[in-house]
Recover the amino acids of this structure.
């Protein structure tokens, strides 16, 4: 008898506990969770967390979890591996060279325009900067992914060194001739040991070089129109430029400093007076430089007709993956709307140096006087919007581009180390690159 | 090699084997079989479209000059790591073998790199040899050599060799030291009485007697340089400049994990696996023979 | 000592000092870098002597962690690495002792077959089969768990192989004596074989602890929840940052913290480890 009582009692207790637990889970379920995998480490990671926290604090229905997943390649691979195992996040940040792979993955991605139409409220695609959004649109102009951190390469220069070499520190070199002259002056005056160095050589010296001079990187509008695209960066102009850079190494007018942004310390330590890299490096440059620096547009050859055209973007966008509930997609849509608001965009743009993705964020930054206080931060936007984009300067849509970049890196490094002439290396890079394009075409048709 | 005295029974030993067999089947055989099956497929990254292509992936590899180049790089790298690692460790072991003051202290310090993750070792050496801020790059430049592992394939190769050797010195040192201490002191004393100097004693007695240890370490070091140096290369050169430090296992990783070309990467793993089987067979034969003594 | 030649002793000390310098130098520089501020490390050559920010940098690291670049606090990452390393070491020793015992001391059908299944794991490095393994772990619902971090890495034959080598050298007389005393296989295993293997167990413990502690790619894939991040992941995350500069001073401080536990394990267990390692592997 007693025993039964005990059992009964404990059962009631257990029951109460279950009820309480259920209540708790229901309370937790009221907040729909959205997972966002990103590749922003260091200071940028802090900013990303602030955005997610800001969104979570702004409403009660959804909670965005921003999860850092390593560098760009690690993040993309992790998301793809997770997709294959049905554990994918809702949102994943993918760098621009992964764009073609993501676009080809029909059934795995949920195009942003569709998501916003089906789950969003008042969505107007025309608020996004055409030069940015166009890169990630399908042939009909529909946005497939949400631009997030877009940047374009710019030229950073050491004002102190310019001054020491008797150059005008307020005047950034405009053409390659200017840059060579400035480099020679700085080296001669002992202001720096080398003239210029570059980050992301393929992106800056081949891809953006082509766009800026309005010459094709590859056929079929740089791959926008067809998978049959073939590389054309073995043109005379390309050979001339890489050949020049090869020759400039001799007097240390140009010095190679590694892939990605590995060359940045060369600029920050005062070794090289000029440095070309992403406008998104602004924060890192200003944190690391103990000298005055200025920002200018990328140099061009002034005898080339149509130059300077406009530069193209790099960086990454947010892709939405298939396989989640409608309710969760509503959360994604709400988050994207928050992300596109002028305030969020303006502060992201101002804190990081990335391009604003909407016109209103650009205008807001102007109103706030940001560009007056931080001269040079609008150079990237001006350079992006220098002219209406042509087929050569809208962007790139090339499959297997991660590997192709490596091929270009490898071949350019052969030039810098003197193993190959610039002509040989560019021909080889085009040939190897085309093989990878054909492979992608085969795999995706 | 088998035990003469054993226990009977059938169910009990299988029960003992069960945990390891289960884990091996679920977490190794099954995924490895899938990886191998991939080698005859072509598949997009998300696994949405799959086509069977037979030996196409292999054919493509064997006609790819960069893949064949990677073989050559692996040979140079592996031979250098093995030779340098063994030579330095042997020298240190011979010096530490003679009973001198502070020997224990030296030994303790010398085994520290064993504890360092390859990825961390890579980061450390990358930091030291960074052409702009690295202290060693600065010193080398001071000696008149313009060190730049970002443009010079030779410099890059030297960097990954140094980092890999550094990581492996401890292991080699420990085995050489044990090998040296197993040599009967009476032999050496006898030679000394016959008037053989330290160098003569080393070349005519110590080194030949060490040859089993040396051979064992050679196999271990070759395997190490083939596979475990992945983390070092990943953290220092990422296989560059050009392809100058892309060893086979690194190529498997970049093609499969970074570029998501799963078919080609799987085909490379199959080739790599054949190499491991060969190396393991050599090691096995050798060890079996030793144990019978 | 065969003879006493002062120059030889001098040479020995000299060579060993050089060796030690070579070995310790990178770690010293890591320590030095962890005591400066970030800016002095990216502009100019790295200094050789410690700066004055030792307490500040380590306090920042331990209190604020590496928000943004690696998530959770450093002590949590250290704890996760510890759990992972210990699980791998203990788990592997347990299953390997059992299976090596079965393979060496019993005759049963499919013995060689089982043996080769286990040994096949030596043939394919983790990096090569990492994606399919990830799928298996994900399908079993083991992502973001200590089990997912450690169990798949236990599937390797190294320890089984080492124990097998050692068991083969154990004299048959011991087995016979045990049988004479009427001890069954399990008693023999528990009372004789395991105690005899103490040194080898210690050696394998050290090897596996370090193997587990030093994993990088695997934890990167299977964890998405900050509370399961490991310390080696944390270092890589601090060094490879897109469009931003690595905070070398904090990265190096994390490196120093990450080095401490495995170094302590190796140094403290030095004698057992060396003895076990050399005896089993030869």
């Amino acid at each position: 008898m007693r025993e039964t009582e005990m059992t009964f009692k404990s059962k009631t207790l257990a029951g109460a506990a279950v009820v309480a637990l259920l209540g708790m889970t229901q309370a937790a379920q009221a907040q729909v969770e959205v997972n966002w995998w990103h590749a922003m480490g260091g200071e940028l990671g802090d900013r990303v967390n602030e955005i997610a926290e800001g969104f979570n604090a702004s409403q009660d229905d959804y909670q965005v979890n921003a999860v850092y997943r390593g560098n760009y390649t690690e993040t993309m691979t992790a998301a793809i591996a997770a997709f294959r195992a049905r554990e994918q996040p809702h949102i994943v940040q993918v760098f621009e060279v992964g764009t073609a792979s993501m676009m080809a993955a029909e059934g795995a991605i949920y195009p942003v325009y569709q998501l916003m139409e089906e789950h969003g409220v008042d969505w107007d695609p025309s608020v996004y900067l055409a030069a940015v959004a166009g890169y990630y649109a399908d042939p009909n102009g529909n946005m497939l992914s949400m631009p997030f951190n877009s940047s374009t390469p710019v030229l950073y220069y050491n004002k102190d060194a310019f001054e020491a070499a008797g150059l005008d520190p307020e005047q950034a070199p405009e053409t390659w001739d200017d840059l060579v002259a400035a480099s020679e002056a700085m080296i001669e005056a002992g202001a720096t040991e080398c003239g210029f160095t570059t980050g992301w050589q393929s992106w800056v010296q081949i891809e953006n070089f082509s766009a800026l001079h309005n010459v094709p990187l590859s056929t079929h509008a740089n791959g926008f129109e067809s998978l049959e695209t073939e590389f054309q960066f073995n043109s005379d102009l390309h050979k001339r430029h890489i050949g020049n850079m090869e020759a400039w190494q001799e007097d240390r007018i140009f010095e190679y400093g590694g892939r990605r942004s590995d060359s940045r310390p060369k600029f920050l330590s005062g070794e090289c007076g000029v440095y070309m890299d992403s406008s998104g490096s602004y924060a890192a440059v200003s944190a690391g430089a103990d000298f005055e620096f200025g920002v200018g547009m990328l140099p061009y050859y002034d005898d080339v007709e149509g130059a300077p055209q406009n530069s193209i973007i790099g960086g990454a966008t947010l892709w939405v993956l298939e396989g989640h509930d409608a309710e969760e997609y509503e959360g994604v849509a709400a988050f994207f709307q928050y992300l596109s608001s002028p305030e969020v965009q303006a502060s992201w743009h101002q804190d990081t140096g990335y391009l604003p993705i909407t016109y209103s964020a650009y205008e807001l930054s102007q109103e706030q006087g940001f560009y007056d206080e931080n001269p040079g931060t609008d150079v990237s936007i001006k350079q992006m919007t220098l002219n209406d984009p042509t087929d050569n300067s809208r962007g790139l849509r090339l499959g297997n581009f991660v590997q192709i970049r490596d091929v270009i890196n490898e071949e350019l490094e052969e030039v810098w180390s003197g193993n190959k002439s610039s002509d040989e290396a560019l021909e080889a890079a085009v040939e190897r690159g085309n093989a990878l394009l054909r492979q992608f075409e085969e795999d995706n048709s | 090699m088998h035990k003469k005295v054993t226990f009977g029974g059938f169910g009990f030993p299988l029960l003992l084997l069960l945990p390891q067999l289960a884990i091996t089947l679920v977490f190794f055989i099954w995924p490895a079989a899938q990886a191998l099956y991939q080698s005859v497929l072509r598949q997009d990254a998300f696994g949405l479209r799959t086509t069977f292509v037979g030996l196409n992936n292999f054919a493509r590899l064997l006609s790819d000059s960069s893949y064949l180049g990677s073989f050559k790089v692996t040979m140079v790298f592996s031979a250098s790591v093995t030779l340098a690692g063994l030579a330095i460790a042997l020298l240190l072991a011979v010096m530490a073998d003679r009973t001198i003051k502070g020997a224990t202290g030296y030994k303790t310090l010398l085994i520290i790199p064993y504890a360092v993750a390859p990825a961390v070792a890579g980061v450390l050496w990358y930091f030291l040899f960074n052409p702009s801020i690295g202290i060693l790059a600065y010193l080398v430049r001071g000696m008149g050599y313009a060190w730049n592992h970002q443009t010079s394939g030779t410099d890059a190769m030297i960097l990954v060799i140094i980092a890999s050797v550094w990581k492996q010195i401890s292991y080699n040192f420990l085995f050489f030291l044990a090998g040296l201490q197993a040599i009967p002191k009476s032999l050496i004393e006898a030679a000394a009485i016959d008037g053989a100097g330290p160098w003569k004693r080393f070349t005519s007695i110590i080194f030949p007697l060490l040859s089993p240890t040396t051979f064992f370490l050679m196999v271990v070091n070759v395997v190490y340089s083939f596979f475990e140096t992945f983390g070092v290369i990943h953290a220092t050169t990422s296989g560059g400049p050009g392809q100058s430090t892309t060893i086979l296992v690194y190529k498997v990783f970049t093609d499969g994990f970074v570029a998501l070309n799963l078919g080609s990467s799987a085909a490379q793993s199959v080739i790599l696996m054949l190499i491991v089987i060969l190396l393991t067979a050599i090691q096995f034969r050798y060890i079996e023979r030793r144990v019978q003594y | 000592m065969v003879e006493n030649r002062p120059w030889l002793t001098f040479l020995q000390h000299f060579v060993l000092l050089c060796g030690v310098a070579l070995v310790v130098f990178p770690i010293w520089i890591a320590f030095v870098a962890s005591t400066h501020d970030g800016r002095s490390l990216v502009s100019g050559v790295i200094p050789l002597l410690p700066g004055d920010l030792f307490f500040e940098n380590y306090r920042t690291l331990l209190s604020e962690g590496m928000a943004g670049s690696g998530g959770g606090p450093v002590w949590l990452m250290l704890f996760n690495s510890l759990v992972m390393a210990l699980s791998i070491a203990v788990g592997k020793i347990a299953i390997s002792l059992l299976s090596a015992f079965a393979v060496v001391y019993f005759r049963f059908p499919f013995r060689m077959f089982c043996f080769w299944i286990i040994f096949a794991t030596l043939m394919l490095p983790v990096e090569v089969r990492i994606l399919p393994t990830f799928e298996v772990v994900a399908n079993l619902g083991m992502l973001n768990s200590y089990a997912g971090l450690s169990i798949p890495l236990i599937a390797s034959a190294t320890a089984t192989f080492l124990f097998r080598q050692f068991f083969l050298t154990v004299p048959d007389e011991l087995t016979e004596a045990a049988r004479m005393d009427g001890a069954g296989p399990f008693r023999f295993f528990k009372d004789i074989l395991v105690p005899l293997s103490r040194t080898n167990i210690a050696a394998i413990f050290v090897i596996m602890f370090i193997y587990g502690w030093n994993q990088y790619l695997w934890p990167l894939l299977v964890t998405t929840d900050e509370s399961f991040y490991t310390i080696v992941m944390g270092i890589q995350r601090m060094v490879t940052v897109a469009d931003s500069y690595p905070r070398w001073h904090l990265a190096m401080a994390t490196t120093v913290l990450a080095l401490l536990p495995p170094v302590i394990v190796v140094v403290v267990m030095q004698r057992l480890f060396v003895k076990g390692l050399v005896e089993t592997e030869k």
Remarks:
- The radius of gyration of chain B is 23 Å.
- The longest strand of chain B covers residues 41-43.
- Residues 56-291 of chain B form a domain with the MetI-like fold fold (CATH 1.10.3720.10).
